[in-house]
Write a structure and sequence with these properties.
The complex is a heterodimer of chains A (108) and B (239).
Chain A: H1 2-27, H2 32-38, H3 41-55, H4 69-84, H5 87-104
Helix pairs in contact in A: 4-5
Chain B: H1 5-36, H2 41-50, H3 54-65, H4 70-80, H5 82-95, H6 100-108, H7 112-122, H8 131-157, H9 170-180, H10 187-202, H11 210-230
The chains are: A mainly alpha (108), B mainly alpha (239).
Amino acid sequence: MNEWLLILGMMLVTFGVRYPVMLLVGKLPMSDRVVRALRYVPPAVLAAIIVPSMLYPDGQTFDLSLQNSYLVAGVVGVILAWRTRNLLLTIVLGMGFFLLYRAVFGLI
Amino acid sequence: MTAGPRQEFIAGVRATLPLEIGAAPFGIIFGALAVTSGMSPAAAQGMSLFVFAGASQFIGVNLLAAGTALPVIVLTTFVVNLRHALYAATLAPHVRHLPQRWLAPLGFWLTDESFVVVANHYNEPGDPRHRHWFYLGSALLMYLNWQLWTLVGIIAGSAIPDPTRWGLDFAMIVTFIGMIIPTIKNHPMLAAVVTAGAVAALANPLPNKFGLILAALCGVAAGVIVEARRGEVKPETAP
């Protein structure tokens, strides 16, 4: 029962962040400058999500070494994305490299 | 050229399809983690069905397993999801003409992945009239895919002893890398990405993922400043 209460609470705050903002901001007049600035939101947020998870693989400890498979494979992923410009190829090859690297270094 | 609702819907599904590969392991791990940390299978699926927020669901399950009080979990979910307010604000000007029956489900189905795909599509030249169908196609695929892989994870949860040790969470990282890199077409965009990443790394010790919001705002500011200095970004072609 407790878990369903948790789901209800999480649902309310999640929807409560997404929907009202979409509704209310849509009613405001938006200047061209604001709309242009908002174009930087997607890449900025994604970078802010992934960079810490590569540098702090366990969430707390900063790890700048070859033992850190998240960082090594992440750098390989950047190169793949840059050279191929193909999302599917980047995901498949990047994930493949990650698993192989961990297998070779006995991290699994 | 005007794309009709049907074409837009299919284009949205197509653009989102590669992202499902990155989301699949993430969904499996969530389902497996939820049941191995003591949640009932129904509630694990229920969380994917009704909350539908990947990162928050992980945090919710982790905190629940650690015996955290319910209000604290809900509050943490709220903070982690604050970035969705930025997403919603970004998309709002494009969907302002839509009625409630569109806005409510589109709001509910907003995710990192759909947001980036949809925001990029709105920034493309051409007639944006039916682009909410693109959004719907992208969002529906994300939703159904997430339900499917959550279910697979729940079933696998009892079979795999320690689902986190495989490091399948890297799937999300490489997916996001593949989404960011092609958008870096000019100096302001590069400045936004590098600044956001650097600030996020430095601010990581801040509690409750507060660093994430801070980093995103710094990244956007960096993009705007560099754009103003260089003035090299093409003007908007879309009306």
